[in-house]
């Protein structure tokens, strides 16, 4: 068994993308002088895990010769991800607007 | 008329789909990611009717081999009889015998000293894998009842073919039942069983053996086939239940293709495996009975009792890992003490109550559509005593053998029969095992997601790059 297979490059790429995304969010929040509240964190983490599951299902379903399952996984998991992301965005945005209005 | 979930011919074909995927998804980066993770269907996109041999990228084809050959003076080698495995091809045949005498002496000593890798169980495994197929050893293929009876190769009287503890001058293998079970599972994986379970024969489980099998107060079992008499010794015995996998990969093609390679090959592998297991057990100094696909008893019954799966609506065993994609559970009876494996509950039989997919898709109407399992049986080909779904084997056989192509629809459509690449399947199985209320929704989603659709008859493996075909057709999720 190879200790590191070609898949390693894929995992590193995903790791970089996720790390980059996390740093980006952290910077945006810092620049806006905003802190996220507990339920926003929960939704964001849920978003993240659902996104991971969706990507895995999408790619693995093609490996399983199940194209329809692959595309439908984008729909069935993508919609909840979008909804959660919108809730988090609107919640943060609402607070930001308030802070801006007060300052 | 049974319902079919055959693909709508107007729908986009699988290959077209792949092409679109390659173009559309490439833009968002998924295509690259998918390819990097071993995207086999992109290989399909690139297939040509006469696919070039695919070599690793650092290998190039050349006109002449890298070893120099003088074809002018090349001599024809006469054949295997000239190899040094034949004593006659030695100048002094006694040299050969001396070498083998030393080999015998060191082999015996290693077994007697229990040297790791060269101990009794290692030799038994080597003999099983080497001679378990029975050919060229001078023995017929192992007799299904008494187990393999490998003799020294009569062609050259190969003198290293010791294979019982007596031959090595040691007592038979001793281990705790737990150690023995672990040893058998390890050997089983090496010899060709994807999973293994153990059932102790008692007054209940003896009823899972064929009716022709009886018990007598004898030290060793015996058979008198002409009288249809098969006798096991009255002593503590265990059934070794070995799962023989079949190719799910092959089932993406037509039933006929699948049968041609996946199912039929699994039977031959099962019989070779059974031979090996018998040689292995005998090599440890224990008895082995059975070992072909038909000689012992009910494979589903033993499979359920050994915890290799649960009983399903179509009357077949459903494994939590392999689904219905099991060709058989091969039964071998032995007196090697084993730790039994218990039956399992993964919510599978319960799921069958709401699922009914195999029944809906069965082209012959052989599978019961009753919601709840029932006490049935009574036909000559059905045995009473199970609260289950009794399939009408006559309808199934009449369909399969009556001119229609070979059929395995009940296996291929089952929601438990899937590749295991996608993590989501494990989450679904977790739900089936712990929250049966969701079963009906899961069955609906299985249809919506397109699982178990009838394959496109125009697709065959003949156009693929041969190196993309899993060895023996066995994909990694079956092994
Ligand atoms: S093999 Fe085919 S005909 Fe027989 S029970 Fe299964 S689906 Fe029905
Ligand atoms: S298809 Fe459904 S009903 Fe039939 S055996 Fe599989 S899970 Fe049970």
Automatic annotation (TrEMBL), chain A:
It comes from the Bacteria. Keywords: Membrane, Transmembrane, Transmembrane helix. The chain crosses the membrane at residues 6-29, 41-63, 69-89. This is Dehalogenase.
Automatic annotation (TrEMBL), chain B:
Its cofactor is corrinoid. Pfam families: Dehalogenase, Fer4_7. One of its GO terms (molecular function) is metal ion binding. Keywords: 4Fe-4S, Cell membrane, Iron, Iron-sulfur, Membrane, Metal-binding, Repeat, Signal. Residues 340-372 form the 4Fe-4S ferredoxin-type domain. It comes from the Bacteria. The keyword Coiled coil does not apply. The keyword Membrane applies. It is found in: Cell membrane. Its main location: membrane. GO terms for cellular component: plasma membrane. This is 4Fe-4S ferredoxin-type domain-containing protein. It comes from Labilibaculum filiforme. The lineage of its organism: Bacteria, Pseudomonadati, Bacteroidota, Bacteroidia, Marinilabiliales.
């Amino acid at each position: 068994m190879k200790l590191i297979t070609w898949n390693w490059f894929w995992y590193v790429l995903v790791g970089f993308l996720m790390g980059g995304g996390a740093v980006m969010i952290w910077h945006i929040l810092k620049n806006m002088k905003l802190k996220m509240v507990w339920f926003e964190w929960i939704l964001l983490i849920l978003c993240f895990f659902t996104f991971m599951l969706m990507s895995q299902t999408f790619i693995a379903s093609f490996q399983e010769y199940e194209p329809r399952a692959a595309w439908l996984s984008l729909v069935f998991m993508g919609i909840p991800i979008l909804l959660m992301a919108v809730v988090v965005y609107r919640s943060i945005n609402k607070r930001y607007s308030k802070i801006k209005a007060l300052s | 008329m049974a319902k079919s979930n055959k693909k709508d011919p107007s729908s986009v074909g699988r290959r077209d789909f792949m092409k679109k995927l390659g173009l559309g998804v490439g833009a968002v980066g998924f295509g690259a990611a998918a390819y990097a993770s071993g995207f086999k269907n992109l290989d399909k996109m690139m297939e040509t009717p006469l696919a070039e041999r695919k070599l690793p990228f650092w290998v190039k084809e050349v006109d002449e081999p890298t070893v120099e050959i003088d074809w002018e003076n090349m001599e024809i080698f006469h054949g295997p009889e000239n190899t040094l495995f034949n004593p006659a091809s030695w100048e002094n045949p006694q040299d050969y015998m001396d070498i083998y005498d030393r080999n015998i002496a060191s082999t015996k000593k290693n077994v007697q000293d229990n040297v790791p890798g060269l101990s009794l169980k290692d030799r038994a495994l080597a003999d099983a894998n080497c001679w378990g197929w029975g050919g060229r050893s001078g023995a017929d293929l192992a007799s299904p009842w008494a187990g393999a009876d490998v003799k020294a190769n009569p062609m050259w009287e190969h003198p290293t073919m010791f294979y019982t503890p007596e031959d090595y001058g040691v007592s038979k293998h001793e281990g705790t039942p737990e150690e023995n079970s672990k040893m058998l599972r390890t050997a089983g994986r090496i010899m060709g069983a994807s999973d293994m379970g153990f059932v102790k024969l008692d007054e209940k489980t003896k009823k899972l053996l064929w009716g022709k099998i009886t018990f007598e107060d004898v030290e060793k079992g015996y058979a008198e086939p002409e009288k249809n008499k098969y006798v096991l010794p009255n002593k503590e015995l265990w059934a070794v239940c070995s799962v023989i996998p079949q190719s799910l990969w092959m089932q993406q093609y037509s039933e006929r293709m699948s049968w041609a390679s996946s199912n039929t090959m699994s039977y031959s592998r099962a019989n070779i495996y059974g031979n090996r297991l018998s040689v292995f057990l005998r090599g440890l100094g224990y008895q082995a009975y059975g070992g072909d696909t038909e000689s012992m008893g009910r494979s589903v019954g033993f499979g359920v009792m050994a915890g290799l799966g649960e009983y399903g609506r179509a009357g077949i065993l459903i494994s939590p890992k392999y689904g219905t994609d099991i060709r058989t559970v091969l039964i071998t009876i032995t007196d090697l003490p084993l730790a039994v494996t218990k039956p399992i509950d993964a919510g599978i039989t319960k799921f069958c109550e709401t699922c009914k997919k195999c029944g809906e898709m069965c082209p012959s109407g052989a599978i019961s559509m009753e919601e709840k399992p029932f006490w049935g049986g009574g036909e000559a080909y059905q045995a009473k005593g199970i609260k289950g779904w009794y399939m009408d084997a006559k309808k199934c056989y009449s369909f399969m053998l009556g001119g229609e192509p070979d059929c395995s629809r009940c296996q291929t459509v089952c929601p438990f029969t899937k590749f295991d690449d996608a993590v989501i399947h494990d989450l679904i199985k977790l739900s089936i095992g712990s929250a049966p209320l969701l079963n009906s929704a899961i069955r609906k989603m299985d249809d919506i997601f397109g699982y178990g659709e009838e394959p496109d008859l125009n697709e065959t493996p003949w156009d693929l790059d041969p190196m993309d075909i899993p060895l023996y057709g066995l994909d990694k999720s079956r092994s």
